[in-house]
TrEMBL record, chain B:
Species, as recorded: Ferranicluibacter rubi
Domain ABC transmembrane type-1: 89-301
Alphabetized Pfam families for the sequence: BPD_transp_1
Matching InterPro entries: ABC_transporter_permease, MetI-like, MetI-like_sf
UniProt xrefs under CDD domains: TM_PBP2
Name under which the protein is recorded: Sugar ABC transporter permease
Keyword Transferase: no
Main location: membrane
Subcellular location: Cell membrane
Topological category with respect to the lipid bilayer: Multi-pass membrane protein
Keywords of this entry: Cell membrane, Membrane, Transmembrane, Transmembrane helix, Transport
Recorded family membership: Belongs to the binding-protein-dependent transport system permease family.
GO biological process, one term: transmembrane transport
SUPFAM superfamilies according to UniProt: MetI-like
Length: 292, 312
């Protein structure tokens, strides 16, 4: 609340900046802050629970609101939880998909934007139509295909389906098209090969697009729940989402509630910290992908 | 373009290589496809083939091990005679109705409130988008611990006033609303950010003119702000319809479709049919229905965003 009254330098970008600090403005800000508090409340509740001893919680939930707090639940993670394995699995899968997507989509984007080959335009339109195919329309057949190839419960099985997503190709093609053609032409005159032009001249210019696509891909795979649920069914192949979900079944009785919550907090901390540092990129990536 | 400059500078010296290079630039050559080939392999094998295979399966009595006997449209007739399937479609539309207008409106209000360059506004934007980076499993864990009777946050808050919280996760009238609340909490960041970026594209001098005319807040919104972001509004609504139509994780993890299937959405129905009962033909048929519904929404999105692109 104190920040509200502090004399911050208003550059007057928005409509409210024009009006200045009217009463209406203050009311709106206060309401928004109140809403933010409501928004944060469930998160705070979960963190608070994770810091409590279980016996105390069993006696009364109001114990959450006063000391003593303990880190014991977090220490228990170190010894008893599979959460590290799940995080490792998620890192391997998300990292693998991100790397593969960046390589495939950069190559394809360059190809569609700069090179001519038979049926190029038709192929590009087909890829664009692929954007409209929802995951659920291909899941069942894909699952059967992977059963036959014995790919379930393997890392390739969790990684490969993502590499067919057309969004990255679309994004990279747009980006390559926006780069002036004179650059390639100059390099062509120097007798540079197509691959050399791609690798040395154009690819360094696409770093912003790579960042957008990389962050968006990593986040989507990290948070995916459906495919790992049906493909990585063995406990040691659980990704973080499936692993955390598997602990949820036994929580009707409040036994180990604090431990469960500490595990959830521990699991979501890395992505929230990344979000705080790379907020701008993440927001751009996610909203860019939504509008496409 | 390149051939002209090349030809005029050194026509006599090296005619053959320049000829070749000209062909490189313009002619459709098969070997140029080598850059797109790796992606296309994945695209065809893991997207296009499964798409048509899924359609093919929906016409068969398929189980976990084989695509069995051809049954024509029997799976589809079975589907539309299944009360639970029809209920799942109803549930899905109900859920879209609960979430999409709320997401669009709350997102717009937040964007209007936070479209200023102060520290506070920046912090608040961070808060409202933060939930969007969490996974569905964490979101449902958080909200179950809010809604769960006895030791949930709501129960505790109601307890302070000596009241008993309604059973959000087991009352048939409330479960969908509970799932919708969790979903709105999870997803509101994206609409807010889309509206914010639209608002920032409105030139400031229009507002200066409006301020000179002493136009009030509501008047300014109605005659300047809203017309400028109308397209974004439609876009947000369509994006959210497509997204919320695919409700799955929240329903599976918060209520598992219960009680009595009142919170079973279409995707959970597909999951249960295909991966619980291993009735793959039925599941495939249900996913074709979902596909058709989403295609309609995606078509609208395409038309809207294309119209937007032409204007810009």
């Amino acid at each position: 609340m104190s920040t509200m009254t502090s004399p911050s330098a208003q550059t007057g970008a928005g409509p409210s900046g024009m009006v200045g600090r009217s009463t209406g403005d203050r009311v709106i800000l206060a309401l928004t802050i109140a809403m933010a508090v409501v928004m944060m409340a469930p998160l705070v509740w979960v963190v608070a629970l994770s810091l409590k001893d279980n016996k105390e919680l069993m006696a009364s939930m109001n114990a959450v609101f006063h000391a003593p707090y303990t880190l014991q639940n977090y220490l228990n993670i170190l010894t008893t939880s599979s959460v590290f394995r799940w995080i490792l699995n998620s890192l391997i899968v998300s990292g693998g998909v991100t790397l593969g997507t960046l390589v495939l989509c950069s190559l394809a984007g360059y190809g569609f934007a700069r090179l001519n080959f038979p049926f190029r335009n038709v192929l590009f339109v087909i890829v664009l139509i692929g954007l409209a195919i929802p995951e659920q329309a291909v899941l069942i057949a894909r699952h059967q295909l992977f059963s036959w190839l014995k790919l379930h419960n393997t890392y390739p099985g969790l990684i490969l389906p993502w590499l067919s997503a057309p969004f990255g190709v679309f994004l990279m093609t747009q980006y390559f098209r926006a780069i002036p053609k004179e650059l390639d032409e100059a390099a062509l005159l120097d007798n540079a090969s197509r691959f050399k032009i791609f690798w040395k001249v154009l690819l360094p210019l696409t770093v912003p697009a790579q960042a957008t696509l990389g962050i968006f891909t990593f986040l989507s795979v990290w948070n995916d729940y459906f495919w790992p649920l049906i493909s990585g069914t063995k406990k040691e192949m659980y990704t973080l989402t499936v692993g955390i979900a598997s602990t949820q079944t036994n929580f009707a009785q409040s036994e180990g509630l604090g431990f469960l919550m500490s595990q959830a907090v521990f699991a979501s901390a890395p992505i929230l910290i990344l979000y705080l540092f790379f907020q701008k990129y993440i927001v751009t990536a996610v909203s860019g992908a939504a509008v496409r | 373009m390149a051939d002209l400059t090349l030809g005029s500078t050194s026509p006599a010296e090296r005619p053959a290589p320049s000829r070749r290079r000209v062909q490189n630039v313009n002619a459709p050559l098969w070997r140029n496809a080598i850059f797109v080939a790796p992606y296309l392999v994945f695209f065809v094998l893991l997207l296009i083939v499964p798409l048509f295979w899924g359609m093919w399966m929906s016409l068969h009595k398929a189980d976990a091990f084989s695509t069995g006997r051809f049954v024509g449209l029997a799976n589809y007739t079975r589907l539309f005679n299944d009360r639970i399937f029809l209920q799942a479609i109803g549930n899905t539309f109900y859920f879209v109705l609960l979430t999409v207008p709320a997401l669009a409106l709350i997102g717009l209000l937040l964007a209007l409130a936070l479209n200023r360059q102060t520290r506070t506004a920046a912090v608040l934007r961070t808060v409202f988008f933060a939930s969007s980076v969490l996974s569905v499993t964490i979101v449902t864990l958080i909200w179950r611990i809010v809604f769960v009777p006895g030791f949930g946050l709501l129960s505790t808050v109601y307890g302070w006033f000596g009241a008993t919280a309604p059973a959000f996760l087991s009352d048939p009238k409330l479960v969908m609303i509970a799932i919708a609340i969790a979903t709105i909490w999870w997803c509101v960041g994206l609409p807010m950010m889309l509206f914010l970026s639209a608002l920032q594209q409105i030139p400031g001098d229009i507002y200066e003119a409006a301020a000179l005319d002493n136009a009030g807040r509501w008047r300014t919104f109605r005659s300047i702000t809203f017309p400028s972001i109308k397209r974004t509004f439609v876009l947000v609504v369509v994006i959210q319809i497509v997204l919320q139509f695919q409700l799955f994780g929240q329903a599976r993890l918060m209520t598992n479709g219960g009680p009595n299937n009142v919170s079973t959405p279409l995707v959970l129905y597909i999951y249960d049919a295909a991966f619980k009962r291993w009735d793959l033909g039925l599941g495939a048929a249900a996913s074709e229905v979902l596909f058709a519904l989403i295609l309609v929404a995606a078509m609208i999105q395409y038309l809207v965003s294309r119209r937007k692109g032409e204007d810009a």
